[in-house]
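Design job #97: recover the sequence.
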């Protein structure tokens, strides 16, 4: 029975490695062919991540004013920490 468990585990590991190898081959193919290959995606695949089947997360845009406010707040936090150390 222990031998069967080892065989099952090895088969699972083999499948996982095959998936990783396919992913690597896809990345290499994409790099070799350049950006022209990525524009030929179907609309269904464009909404899905290249390396996995999770939806692509859209990034929110932050205005310059918003970035400046966050930066100023973080600088104030660090100044407070530095002042507390003295």
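Job complete. Output follows.
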């Amino acid at each position: 029975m222990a031998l069967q468990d080892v065989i099952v585990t090895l088969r699972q590991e083999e499948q996982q490695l095959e998936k990783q190898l396919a992913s690597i081959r896809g990345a290499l193919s994409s790099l070799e062919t350049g950006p022209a290959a990525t524009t030929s995606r179907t609309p269904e695949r464009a909404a899905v991540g290249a390396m996995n089947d999770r939806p692509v997360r859209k990034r929110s845009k932050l205005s310059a004013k918003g970035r400046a406010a966050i930066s100023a707040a973080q600088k104030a936090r660090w100044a407070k920490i530095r002042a507390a150390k003295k």
